[in-house]
Structures are given as structure tokens and as C-alpha cells.
Write a sequence for this structure.
């Protein structure tokens, strides 16, 4: 019958409208900003840089390889590589970004920078309340504002962050030198005789 779909739709709307006065789960709006709906795990906005430990400078994972800068489609990342090196999270001397800026008025939240980073150093943030009174300079996020701890990353993307930690721990374990005793026993142990 013509119009049945419209009537069914209106019945659902009416049921939810009246029901929302009695059942809280039927109410799909919240009184923002006093109330906030939880954001889904995969919600993303603009990128941020991760640091380990409590030191945003010493613990910054970024080694200024510039891959993200090169791959960013709208070219909104600007990096200046350091002259000197600092130890990374595994104690290996690495360059670091002396300057790392992202123009968030240009960033399109595509996450390509995250996908291409070989060091798990850049991830997507969930912060969306970024309005400012300034029109130009405030839209440029600098290294200091972009740097956030791994604990923060765990808070906003718990599942993803746990997977990244496991991956980094596995990579670190593979790079650990084999114990000398194990090495020598591997060299001196006799080959099994053929049967
Ligand atoms: S999210 Fe996309 S547009 Fe934004 S900085 Fe990363 S690569 Fe560039
Ligand atoms: S964020 Fe990653 S890809 Fe970009 S410069 Fe740093 S280490 Fe390289």
C-alpha cells in the first residue's frame, strides 16, 4: 500500500519521541557542553606526536625522517631535522625534529602520516574543541603542543595503543643481542649424528 513506509517511519519516530521521556537510552541527544557522548575508539581529528617516559623532548619517538612530511597530501607538515642526535627509546642515537609544525587549517585528517610513519611516532588525536580567536598563527600547531605522552594515547585509543606497545616490545626483543653463553653453546654444540 502506498504510504505504508512513511507511516511506519512516523510510528518509529513517535515511539522514540514519547519513549525518550521515560527511557534514557531512547534519548540520542546530550546537553553539550555539560554532557558529552563518549567518542568511539576510531574517532580521529588531527595528528599528534607521541613521547615515551615523562620527558616530551627526550622521549619523543619522531626521528625527523620526514616521510610523513613528504607523503602528506595537502603538504601541511613542516619539519626541520636537528643537527645533533639524542638516544631514542632503545638507546640508539637518532636525529629529532628541531621544528615540527602542522597547519590544522589545511590538514584533512586523512591519517596518511600515521600509516607511513615507521616509528609509531605520530597518531591521530580526538581533541575537537580547537576554536581560537586568532585567525592565522593559532592554526599552526607546533612541536610543544603536538607532543603528548604514550599514556594519553592509551587513554584515547586503548585498543590501538596496546597493539602498538606489543609491536614495539616485540621489535625491541628481536634487536636484543643473544646472550654470550647461548651463542657459544650454539657454536660448540655437536651436530646430531645421522641415524
Ligand atoms: S592527517 Fe593527512 S592531511 Fe593531516 S597531517 Fe596527516 S597526512 Fe597530512
Ligand atoms: S612522525 Fe614518523 S614519519 Fe614523520 S618525521 Fe617523525 S618519524 Fe618520520
Amino acid at each position: 500500500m502506498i504510504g505504508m513506509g512513511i507511516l511506519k517511519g512516523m510510528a518509529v519516530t513517535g515511539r522514540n519521541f514519547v519513549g525518550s521521556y521515560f527511557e534514557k537510552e531512547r534519548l540520542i541527544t546530550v546537553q553539550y557542553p555539560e554532557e558529552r557522548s563518549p567518542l568511539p575508539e576510531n574517532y580521529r581529528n588531527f595528528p599528534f606526536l607521541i613521547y615515551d617516559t615523562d620527558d616530551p623532548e627526550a622521549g619523543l619517538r619522531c626521528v625527523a625522517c620526514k616521510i610523513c612530511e613528504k607523503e602528506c597530501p595537502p603538504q601541511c607538515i613542516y619539519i626541520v631535522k636537528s643537527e645533533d642526535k639524542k638516544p631514542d627509546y632503545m638507546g640508539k642515537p637518532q636525529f629529532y625534529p628541531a621544528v615540527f609544525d602542522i597547519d590544522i587549517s589545511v590538514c584533512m585528517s586523512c591519517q596518511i602520516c600515521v600509516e607511513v610513519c615507521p616509528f609509531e611516532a605520530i597518531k591521530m588525536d580526538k581533541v575537537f574543541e580547537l576554536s581560537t580567536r586568532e585567525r592565522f598563527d593559532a592554526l599552526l600547531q607546533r612541536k610543544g603542543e603536538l607532543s603528548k605522552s604514550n599514556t594519553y594515547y592509551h587513554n584515547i585509543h586503548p585498543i590501538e595503543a596496546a597493539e602498538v606497545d606489543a609491536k614495539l616490545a616485540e621489535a625491541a626483543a628481536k634487536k636484543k643481542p643473544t646472550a654470550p653463553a647461548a651463542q657459544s653453546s650454539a657454536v660448540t654444540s655437536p651436530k646430531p649424528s645421522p641415524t
The chain has a mean pLDDT of 87. The first helix runs from residue 4 to 19. The chain has seven helices and eight strands.
